[in-house]
Amino acid sequence: MDIFAKFKKAQGNIGQHMNQIHGYFAFPKLEGEIHPHMKFRGKEMLTWSLNNYLGLANHPEVRKADAEAAARWGLAYPMGARMMSGQTTTHEQLERELAEFVGKEDAFLLNFGYQGMVSIIDAVCGRNDVIVYDSESHACILDGVRLHMGKRYVYTHNNMESLRKQLERATLLAEKQGGGVLVITEGVFGMSGDLGKLDEIAKLKDEFEFRLLVDDAHGFGAMGPTGAGVPEFFGVQDKVDLHFGTFAKAMAGIGAFVACSSEICYYLRYNMRSQTFAKSLPMAMVEGSLKRLELIRTQPQLREQLWTIVNALQNGLKEAGFDLGRTNSPVTPVYLKGGTEEATNLVYDLRENYRIFCSIVVYPVIPKGELIIRIIPTAMHTLEDVNYTLKAFKEVRQKLETGGYSKTEMAKVEVDM
């Protein structure tokens, strides 16, 4: 049988709807400068879907640094993988500054976040090692865990009793096999917005022997007194053995890093296949990342403005009776009741009539009958943006609760197939 034949019958959980959603509800094209106000299908939208937490994507100093670096180096230099011919003193400088910022001895620069997390797990865990991970871990963690040839245990999200039980099982098995235990969690869980309980997990190190890997993609730059992330927020930087962060969120760039002890960092440099067999991160991106990191360190007002918007938006939604779940980070999920039809019409109404662009999450990502409007505040948003959104959401909820999105088929859009 042709291996492609199955695709004609099954396109996957989300892909099965591609003929109705492509180009509008999925793979939409936002146009214009990265900003809270962008264009979608020729119409200006108030956009709440960009992970540009600190507004660095179009910060004038960042744009200048990016442009000058690209003009000086192009996008090819350095050629080759870091181990072979792609090493530079600038790459090393960025690693040193990242390590210092998050309170670690050393850091290893990675090309991409998703790829990097998968490769960290692969490099650290052998067949006899046991992984224990949070049930709501990001897809990059799940893929890394699935590739692990050894045993793995999952604990109920942020449930320390569940983690304790899985650590007991993992410890017994690891001792029997002559391996170790790696616990994996997130700093900020990107869908729900709640924080991994790093302080409580760290305390379990007094009872169990394990190493802790934290995916701090959404926390790095936005959380903690200096923006160093969720480990800093909880004051447990010394208890986190592998601090992973990406440049795709607060840094508004491309790349990632893992910070740890110098000994482990050198092990990763020589054993992470995603870096050993991949071209080095281009110099233009490295120099641009140095400027982004400098601004995170030296301009705390960016983080303060982010939290001004976060607090205004989240407090306003809560006062209006909206359910934001467990979030205690900038990630703002708004939980509502409704099926796919209601969700489709709600999004259409928000975009076409209110000119608000935000992401929506429905089944199969979450249970049937529920929907989440996921809002990402940034330092570039204004209080006027917040007030307009609060008014619109109150009106949209009223329509949803009175059946306004189920009575008629509002969303008649042409998809880009």
Q: What is the makeup of the main sheet?
A: 7 strands, mixed
Helix amount: 25-40%
Alpha-beta content class: alpha/beta
Q: What's the CATH H-level superfamily name of the largest domain?
A: Type I PLP-dependent aspartate aminotransferase-like (Major domain)
The succession of helices and strands, N to C, reads HEEEHHEHEHEHEHEHEEHHHHEHEEEH
User: Would you identify the CATH architecture of the largest domain?
Assistant: 3-Layer(aba) Sandwich
Q: How many helices does DSSP assign?
A: 14
- Give the N-terminus to C-terminus distance in angstroms: 27 Å
The parts where pLDDT drops under 50 for at least 5 residues are none
- What is the 3D shape? globular
* Strand element count: 14
Would you give an account of this structure?
With 417 residues, this protein is an alpha/beta fold. It has two domains: 5-53 and 300-401, Alpha-Beta Complex (Aspartate Aminotransferase, domain 1), CATH 3.90.1150.10; 59-298, Type I PLP-dependent aspartate aminotransferase-like (Major domain) (Aspartate Aminotransferase, domain 2), CATH 3.40.640.10. Helix content is 39%, strand content 15%. The chain contains 14 helices and 14 strands. A seven-stranded mixed sheet has the order 4-10-9-8-7-5-6. The chain has a four-stranded mixed sheet with strand order 1-2-3-12, covered by helices on one side. A three-stranded antiparallel sheet has the order 11-14-13. Helix 4 (113-124) packs parallel to helix 5. The chain starts with 17 loop residues before the first helix and ends in a 16-residue tail after the last helix. The model has no long low-confidence stretch (mean pLDDT 93).
